[in-house]
Amino acid sequence: MVFNSRAELIEWTRATGKRFGFVIVIRKLEVNVSRRKPRIRFACERSDTYKHKISECQGKKRSRATGTKKCNCPFLLKGKKLASDDKWVLKVINGQHNHPAAQHLEGHSFAGRLTKEEVNMLIDMSKSEVKQKNILHTLQNRDIHNVSTMKTIYNARYKYKVVEQAGRSQIQHLMSKLNEHNYIEWHRSHEDTDCITDLFWVHRSTIELLRAFPRVLIMDCTYKTNKQCWPRSLCL
Prior knowledge:
Blueprint: E1 2-3, H1 6-19, E2 24-30, E3 39-44, E4 76-81, E5 88-94, H2 116-127, H3 132-142, H4 150-165, H5 170-180, E6 183-189, E7 196-203, H6 204-212, H7 232-235
Antiparallel strand pairs: 1-5, 2-3, 3-4, 4-5, 6-7
Helix pairs in contact: 2-4
Pfam family, one: FAR1
Organism: Dipteronia sinensis
InterPro entries: FAR1_DNA_bnd_dom (IPR004330), Zinc_finger_SWIM (IPR052579)
């Protein structure tokens, strides 16, 4: 088979394998090899065998009661770029699997990966405070072949938060966001530990509304952070 680009070749190979219940991964990629055309090899995720890790401190193999999905599956495909243009050709080296096809691909880490477009959607929905389960339902409704799990969504959101915080603590990240969005902030700290004991912030537009309507002040007592169940008068 001939494909117009390497990306098209990879996408077709993975989608075809997923359709038949197999997860196909890139085993080897040769791009910048002198005097050789770019090549790519695809294999089943269960190819090869499990390699025991050597403990650095003891210098011997670990004895752990673990399982492995590796079963030395011989399935192998080879893609090669044509010399005339940017097209790629795919050749079957071994089209046999030594294990049955998976009836459900949920739980397969590679098959459940999010695409770049799905990650961008997840970030946008996370900024809008959309719950994780609703994010997963949206992605699955958008793509019927999506086999991501809640763990995939949690990990993607955690990775996004780590990148956004850039090594800062939660309170440091909060302070930076308040400053970024032009909030007015006031806080008190403990004299000995320098830990923040009281923190208050308000947006400038809210102050303008308060000045315009000084006799009207409303607070939502059903807000989820009111864990102490204080009445409105005490909150004010």
